[in-house]
């Protein structure tokens, strides 16, 4: 594809429309994450899904985002970002329709996968549209802040709308939520969104796409199965070996490609490398934490989707409010202090959550979630803007796609890693909790066997008779033990990312424009 007029920065009359469509696109892409997360207990009860199967509900969405986001970026550069943007909206709508009509957990996975593929098309495209419309990297940070706030707005309103819908109409109808937004965005984009392409020749990198998709999928599958069957299970070992070999093949392919999907030269930029690593860590922590927290609200506190939705909205609402502010503050405060300080706040909130239990009040958990949300708000926009601004303008689209890809790899690993830790910690703790509660040996064995086979959610399907309150309290205590393991892991990982940021992300480090 040769350079055409469409590669020039968007004229002023199209700039506003382009930025608005970019923000609406990322809103559609991220709306299913928390709207589905808050409904996981209801989905599990309705379809008899295990903890591992519920992990796949989240990962069926995030995995295609991670696997196809780089290819979608290349498609946009070569064939036109408007076309890819419209395709993403269509896939998002189709996925919602499939999940809406699902009668089994497997069909929910299919719908989630289609919607996740649509999100993979939207994410790099929306950032590339902003880079095209605002070529000045100093001005671009402000609009990336607005883009990040749109992302957090989706995470905020998702559970608020999904809660009443799920409780009054049933869990399937949460999948209606993105459809009107996607249809409206499609109709507006047809007339108001100008076409644009990359100002240099690129072509599709199928060997890179295949090896990347296999590596990410095998890695997440191995982690999830390790939590269910143990790390020594042959399927786990096979999956992890495939992930390592495919990852090595991806690096080899990209090094030799004339038109790589991810130019490894990007990693010569310290700023890009550090922010990309932080993106992966922060989303592993965030998406994994949302998964665990939604299970805590449903299984331990026995909250409905509306009450759980308000609690998640506190966290994501705080992020949304701070996100736009953080984009503007990049001109006055070094990015490493914004990102590092935000990560430190997230880690502090995660450690503070170690003290919660089944009876923790809305206010007591609320302030911790607000602190966590404020921290994430200071991370999102500066992290993305720094990654994009650290490379030459011609590579801005690839840098955005690469940063998003690693972010979604972290997002896919989040429910897998924390779900595995949650299950392992809870299963190890459950026999002792049941014994301490005075549950007799036969009943204790029934409960433990059910949890070993299908996860903690299996207990709700057992006929426990008079022992129901006692057993459920013991299961809740075991869940809390597993949740503490998740919080310690996330807190340490996030704190390490904060230190990495403060030490390695030097002002003006190797940025080129």
TrEMBL record:
Pfam families: MFS_1
The organism of origin for this protein: Gordonia alkanivorans CGMCC 6845
Entry-linked Gene3D superfamilies: MFS general substrate transporter like domains (1.20.1250.20)
Protein name listed in UniProt: Membrane protein
Keyword Methyltransferase: no
TM segment ranges: 19-40, 60-78, 85-103, 109-131, 143-161, 173-194, 206-224, 236-253, 274-296, 308-325, 337-356, 368-393, 405-427, 482-505
CDD domains: MFS_MMR_MDR_like (cd17321)
Major facilitator superfamily (MFS) profile domain mapped to chain residues: 18-509
Record membrane topology: Multi-pass membrane protein
Domain of life: Bacteria
InterPro entries membership: MFS, MFS_dom, MFS_trans_sf
Keywords: Membrane, Transmembrane, Transmembrane helix, Transport
Gene Ontology CC terms: plasma membrane
GO molecular function, one term: transmembrane transporter activity
UniProt-annotated location(s): Cell membrane
């Amino acid at each position: 594809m040769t350079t055409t007029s469409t590669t020039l920065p968007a004229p002023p009359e199209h700039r506003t429309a382009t930025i608005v469509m970019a923000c609406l696109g990322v809103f559609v892409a991220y709306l299913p994450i928390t709207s589905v997360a808050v409904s996981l207990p209801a989905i599990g009860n309705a379809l008899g899904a295990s903890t591992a199967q519920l992990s796949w509900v989240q990962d069926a969405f995030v995995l295609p985002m991670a696997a196809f986001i780089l290819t979608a970026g290349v498609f946009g550069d070569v064939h036109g970002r408007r076309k890819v943007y419209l395709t993403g909206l269509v896939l998002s709508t189709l996925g919602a329709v499939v999940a809406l009509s699902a009668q089994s957990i497997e069909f929910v996975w299919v719908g989630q996968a289609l919607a996740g593929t649509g999100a993979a098309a939207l994410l790099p495209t929306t950032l590339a549209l902003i880079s095209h419309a605002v070529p000045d990297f100093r001005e671009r940070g402000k609009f990336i802040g607005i883009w990040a706030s749109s992302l957090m707005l989706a995470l905020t309103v998702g559970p608020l709308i999904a809660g009443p819908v799920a409780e009054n109409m049933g869990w399937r109808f949460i999948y209606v939520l993105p459809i009107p937004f996607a249809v409206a965005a499609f109709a507006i984009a047809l007339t108001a969104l100008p076409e644009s392409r990359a100002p240099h020749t690129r072509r599709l990198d199928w060997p890179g796409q295949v090896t990347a998709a296999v590596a990410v999928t095998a890695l997440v599958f191995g982690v999830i199965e390790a939590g269910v069957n143990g790390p020594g299970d042959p399927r786990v070992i096979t999956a992890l070996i495939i992930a390592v070999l495919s990852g090595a093949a991806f690096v080899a392919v990209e090094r030799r490609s004339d038109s790589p999907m991810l130019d490894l030269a990007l990693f010569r930029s310290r700023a890009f490398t550090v922010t990309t690593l932080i993106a992966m860590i922060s989303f592993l922590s965030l998406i994994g934490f949302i998964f665990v927290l939604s299970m805590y609200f449903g299984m331990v506190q026995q909250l409905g989707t509306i009450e759980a939705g308000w609690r998640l909205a506190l966290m994501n609402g705080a992020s949304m409010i701070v996100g736009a502010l953080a984009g503007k503050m990049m001109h006055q405060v070094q990015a490493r202090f914004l990102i590092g300080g935000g990560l430190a706040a997230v880690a502090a909130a995660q450690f503070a959550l170690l003290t919660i239990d089944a009876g923790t009040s809305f206010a007591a958990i609320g302030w911790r979630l607000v602190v966590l949300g404020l921290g994430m708000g200071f991370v999102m926009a500066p992290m993305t803007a720094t990654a994009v601004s650290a490379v030459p303008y011609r590579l801005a689209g690839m840098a955005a796609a690469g940063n998003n890809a690693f972010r979604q790899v972290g997002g896919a690993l989040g429910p897998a890693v924390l779900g595995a830790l949650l299950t392992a910690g809870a299963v190890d703790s459950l026999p002792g909790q049941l014994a301490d509660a005075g549950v007799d040996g036969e009943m204790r064995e029934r409960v433990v066997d059910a949890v070993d086979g299908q996860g903690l959610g299996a207990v709700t399907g057992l006929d426990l008779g008079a022992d129901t309150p006692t057993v459920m309290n013991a299961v809740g205590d075991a869940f809390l033990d597993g949740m503490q393991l998740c919080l310690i892991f996330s807190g340490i990982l996030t704190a390490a990312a904060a230190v990495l940021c403060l030490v390695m992300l030097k002002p003006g480090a190797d940025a080129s424009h």
